[in-house]
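Z., the sequence and structure:
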Amino acid sequence: MHATERMSLSRVNPAPETTWQAQYRESITEIGTLCEALDLRPEQLPVSDAAARQFPLRAPKSYVGRMQKSTPQDPLLLQVLPHAFEEQESIDFVADPVGDLKSIKSPGLLQKYHGRALLLATSRCAVHCRFCFRRHFPYSSQNPRTDAWRTALGEIARDASIEEVILSGGDPLVLSDQELGTLGRQIQQIPHVRRLRIHTRLPVVIPARISAGFLDWVESCALSVVVVVHINHPQEIDHELRCKLRELSATRCCVLNQSVLLRNINDDANIQVALSEKLFDAAVLPYYLHLMDKVQNASHFDVEESRACSIMKEMAARLPGYLVPRLVREEYGEPGKTPVFV
């Protein structure tokens, strides 16, 4: 994207005075602060102190600002609220639902599928989604940053079958532009790697993360860059995020969205249709709609497969094919994501 184009977009939606790093640091981490921001009383919310201790609350103010005030059932609030339902246990819900620990090649490097390797670039996230399939992951022992990713990158360099490196986490965009640039240059030096994929939710909750420095890095990267954002509900896409995603899509990278089907949040055909339409308006294509990974303490988000297929059938009847995401589940040992609705 030319500098003049970026300037025109910034005039449409002026950049905030604070940097994205400051917004990250100033995220809401206390229930009382969250309630105050939403005009709610703590007793109106079914909060679990035990859940908050096990997996602390974290939500940037930009994201909280898109929640409806005085609405305990707001779909964005329910994604981050340490809910009393998290104390429920189910035999089908486990700490490692997708077999991450069985897929480790070296600390922070996972390989499940042919030709691709996933690097946990950092353990940190900008938002703590209560349904996160890695909420119990042992990041302390699986942190590749302790040796500046050298061991993980060495493993990738020794395996000529790996053509795509996926940066995940945590959230890889918690890294500064300088750190991201350093890691990107190291990956570029591996001859058989052709693509770099970034899985991130950070720009969704802090749109300012799509900064001029990040856009310049995407433009200059010698690899083909794919950015997969994680947007679950149309309410998450406000004017600022739409403009930022359009800016990103105007660079040389491909921008896709993956989401998770969540009970009482987005398990409705009207919501899913609206999400696909708003994604396209933001120059993002729907990619995957995941059946929720059965992670311990999150069973209250689970949606039955029959309901998911019914939603997909209605979406397929109402949307052009390129706006219908693939409904999938992840199963350890399979060669790829398992299609649920064909």
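Confidence is low (pLDDT under 50) at residues 1-12. The chain has 13 helices and ten strands.

Let me know what you think.
H.
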